[in-house]
Amino acid sequence: MSMHDHDPALAAAVFDAALARLAADPPELGLAREPGALPAGTITATGLGAERALGLLRDALLPASTAIDHPGYLAFIPGASTPAASLVDLLVSVHALYGGSWLEAAGAVHAENEALAWLAGLAGFPEGAGGCFVQGGTNGNLSALHAARERARHGGGRAARVAVSEEVHSSVRSMLRVMDAGALDVPGGRLTGGALEAALEADGDGVFAVVATAGTTNLGLVDDLAGVADVCGERGLWLHVDGAYGLGALCAPSVRERFAGIERADSFIVDPHKWLFAPFDSCALIYRDPAYGRAAHRQHASYLESLYVDDATFNPSDYGVHLTRRPRGVPFWFSLAVHGTDAYAEAVESTLALARAVADEVRARPELELVAEPELSVVVFRRHGWRLPDYGAWADGLRLGGRAFVLPTSHAGEPVARLAFVNPRTTLDHVRAVLDAMS
């Protein structure tokens, strides 16, 4: 059998393994292994054969990787793909789709654009807003800021710096280094219009864009989007909103007002693989006026010009830092199409309610103290009398016991505990067991 021949036995075995994983309730949490504990010598001249290779993957390698959708995974920002989205991710893969151009993937691009239009509508963007799905928030932030700088340069401005808050995501600072651009740091944890205005008055030379955050990773806080939008509008600055985590809550009526001002941004990102129940990796990058994205990102070469004969067609490769791309927004679209937007609102509301209940639980335990009232679905608290090694031992015990994946963080120089909720299958009983382990 040639390596490109269809192997029915392998297909059946892979599907059986995939279906077993989908049926697991809950899945195994998974544990990282030391490098020496994992199988070596897996690449050989003659091959291991499908059965042995799949056995290694299924029985040795995947169990050594953490299940981010486990209801006890509460570190970083979790994910919880719907089974519908995960299954269609598999289907998209076997269809061998190139998702960069309308010419080659009109159906897939249309589906992605339907999902982007829903997100743009949630943000109050005008008809005609759009963008594309990129690999993750880092790529999305880079793509948006590159478009912002190109607009400023074509306008004759000196585009050298971006105004950011102290709590801006690490990817923004990293991508500014990639762009060889500087940062104007605005003092204070939450970015406000007043603080931004004062920083620009003191040292605004060369600033061409502002990055506001809708859901900081550490505390889950939302910047003063309306106040920041006022300043950007008055000064002609591009406003980009990094909502990789938090803007998933745009569909939740209970917190919608916290994002007031998002409708005045020039661009924003949100990661469906976080709070919108899509598989890794998927970041929605949306421009108020996609023409700026296209002007910054469209690539030109003799072999590409055929894609632009009809300039009305929509090519996702024109809107981000990529050319080759898979249609990573299709699984998200499929889940939305299957379940409807009301189900998404209900699922996000359930995690917001859980965060409030966990905050109440923390308040009820005298050994614990909230660091901040949760605005979205991140709860940060301290355990009186604990130092960093104590938090580390707590996290290790839960992880090694296969019960939960938690990690400490720090706030104002102090080690603290942090729990993030985006999985509707996480219950208060799960969290109580995590808190009980701190007794």
Distance between the termini: 59 Å
CATH topology of the domain at 96-338: Aspartate Aminotransferase, domain 2
Second rung of CATH, namely the architecture of the domain at 96-338: 3-Layer(aba) Sandwich
Which radius of gyration do the C-alpha atoms yield? 23 Å
**Average pLDDT for all residues:** 97
* CATH class categorisation of the domain at 96-338: Alpha Beta
- Side-by-side strand order of the widest sheet: 1-7-6-5-4-2-3
Biggest sheet statistics: 7 strands, mixed
Rough outline: globular
Question: Can you write the helix and strand succession as a string?
Answer: HHHHEHEHEHEHEEHEHHHEEHEEH
Strand content: 5-15%
Number of continuous helical runs: 14
CATH superfamily of the domain at 96-338: Type I PLP-dependent aspartate aminotransferase-like (Major domain)
> Uncertain spans, ≥5 residues at pLDDT below 50?
none
Content-based structural category:
alpha/beta
Helical fraction equals: 40-55%
